[in-house]
Amino acid sequence: MTIITSVYNQAGGVGKTTLVQNVSYHLVELGYRVLAIDLDPQSTLSAFMGIDRAELKKTVYHSLMQDEPLPIIKSAFGFDFAPANLGLQNAESELVTADMKEMRLKDALEPVLKDYDLILIDCPPQLGNLTYIALVASTHILVPIATQFKAFDSTELLMATYKRARARANRSLKFAAFVPTMYDGRNLADTRVYKALAEQLSELAPVLDPIPRSVAFVDASEKRQPLAVYQPRHPAIVPLKKIAKRLAELCPTT
Amino acid sequence: MTIITSVYNQAGGVGKTTLVQNVSYHLVELGYRVLAIDLDPQSTLSAFMGIDRAELKKTVYHSLMQDEPLPIIKSAFGFDFAPANLGLQNAESELVTADMKEMRLKDALEPVLKDYDLILIDCPPQLGNLTYIALVASTHILVPIATQFKAFDSTELLMATYKRARARANRSLKFAAFVPTMYDGRNLADTRVYKALAEQLSELAPVLDPIPRSVAFVDASEKRQPLAVYQPRHPAIVPLKKIAKRLAELCPTT
Ligand SMILES: Nc1ncnc2c1ncn2[C@@H]1O[C@H](COP(=O)(O)OP(=O)(O)OP(=O)(O)O)[C@@H](O)[C@H]1O
Ligand SMILES: Nc1ncnc2c1ncn2[C@@H]1O[C@H](COP(=O)(O)OP(=O)(O)OP(=O)(O)O)[C@@H](O)[C@H]1O
Ligand SMILES: [Mg+2]
Ligand SMILES: [Mg+2]
After folding, report:
1. Using CA atoms, how far apart are residues A99 and A78, in angstroms rounded to an integer?
2. Which residues pair with A7 in a beta bridge?
3. Residue B90 to residue A198: CA distance in whole angstroms
4. B115-169 tens-digit pLDDT
5. With the CA atoms of B72, B74, B77 and B83 taken in that order, what torsion angle do they form, in degrees rounded to the nearest 10?
6. How confident is the model at residue A209 (pLDDT cuts 50, 70, 90)?
7. Which residue of B has its CA nearest to A151?
8. Which residues line ligand 2 (CB under 6 A)?
């Protein structure tokens, strides 16, 4: 059984794509077969994978709306990925009136499940149809939460979306973990938010060790490398590996 | 004729709400009558205005979906505002099947136009129905763009949304200005992005002086004060006033 994890938070810039890039890498290090899906029309993940997005002939859009097989590309880091570009934005409106629209991503993933242990879906920072079909297709949700100002408001809204998806279309959808991100441990506000998140959310799913704010992530992205490749001794690698370990423990042991 | 400005960018955390709080204040300083509308279910603007959001009986939701008059509250800083809370999220789904859904905000604003020179709409960081009806109701759009990583991708997506709203429902919709935000002038990447934005966008509308990244904005928000009240000599007040001046010059001179 493939573990399908939506990396989801409707708040922008909280580290979803960064988690997909890095956690996929660490899962490959642990020996798992991983597929990353770029489900964001902003397609930051695809840019990170070195794709020329204007030149892409096939994207996840064609799988969702035109029944094409998922366009799977092998990355340089051992995981596969399915790219997107701005054309995917059309799926937002086209999904409104499509047949079986909720199942479109689930159906697109069906033929490849046997090839992967884990599938990570990089969700857009939106509350629209793309996010919804990702939640419908998933077994689990991984939630990065930036430990600043809007952590609670955005988490409240996220919970409402999760409940709706679970009630209407995916009764077994669970949270895999919450990941505090952009954490500045010297900042009193950050430590307060982190502590409160851990108190409020741990009963739902593990609140993992925070990913510290570090310019190394931006630099690694610009080099198109996971942090562990770009700066092998960086302290943030420790919590990143713990996230991979948490997802790995969701996999059924053969 | 009332100038109705959507403060819009689907990217999260780029300074929309901060602009509404501060530019409204500076417009009042210039002598204009200003109404700020909180159109975000995350309702950060309403929190900033000191509203107990859980206790709110009437919000913009009731005006949009139940034909109630706009709930108008006088702020301590000379501008009026119409609050929101998480309940506004229901409008996203209810608008899908509502009659005359595109006109819902425009119609709600109609009775109060005579009372204001400018109306600023704080849009959610979403591409959904709330953003759409804001664009349909507006005469202008003010776009904050954070001078970091995703400036170009998010601007491209924003342009697509603008064109769709203009083509389908609001032919005279124009950009009032672009405002580079979160600007760190010592950072080479920021200066490059700022320069490129100015080159690419100035033919569409003025690209105004950037708002520098400064912890004073966060502190002022926590005190529930515009920056100019919290720290009257702060250098960022200069570009904020220029934005107010730009919006003011859109007002017809009597
Ligand atoms: N721990 C970190 N410290 C500093 N910068 C980070 C960290 N994690 C991510 N970043 C940077 O912050 C920016 C936003 O990260 P990322 O793109 O992963 O967020 P996102 O949630 O996917 O954004 P979006 O909502 O737009 O899809 C990127 O420039 C990224 O390199
Ligand atoms: N120039 C600035 N320098 C530093 N921090 C800022 C600046 N402007 C805004 N902030 C802070 O950044 C955070 C995001 O700002 P704001 O809420 O205005 O963005 P937004 O675009 O409205 O976000 P959202 O998309 O969630 O509605 C807030 O904590 C705010 O206080
Ligand atoms: Mg992303
Ligand atoms: Mg806001």
Report:
1. 35
2. A122, A142
3. 28
4. 999 999 999 999 889 999 999 999 999 999 999 978 998 999 999 999 999 999 9
5. -40
6. very high
7. B42
8. A 149-150; B 12-18, 40, 42, 44, 125, 181-182, 211, 213-214, 217-218, 221
Identify the residue whose tokens are 């970091």: B148
Which neighbouring-strand residues pair with B73?
B81
**Max intra-chain CA distance, chain B:** 51
* Strand ranges (E), A161-208: 174-181
What residue type is assigned to position B71 of the chain? P
Q: How many H helices and E strands in chain B?
A: 11, 7
pLDDT in tens, B236-251: 999 999 999 999 999 9
Strands (E), A174-248: 174-181
Between chains, do A44 and B150 touch, taking CB under 8 Å as contact?
A: yes
CB of A44 within 8 Å of any CB in chain B?
yes
Index of the ligand 1 atom closest to the CA of residue A19: 18
Q: Is there a contact between A149 and B218 if contact means CB atoms under 8 Å apart? A: yes
Out of B89, B92, B157, name the one closest to residue A41 (CB). Answer: B157
The residue with tokens 């799913």 is A205
Beta carbons of A88 and A39 less than 8 angstroms apart: yes
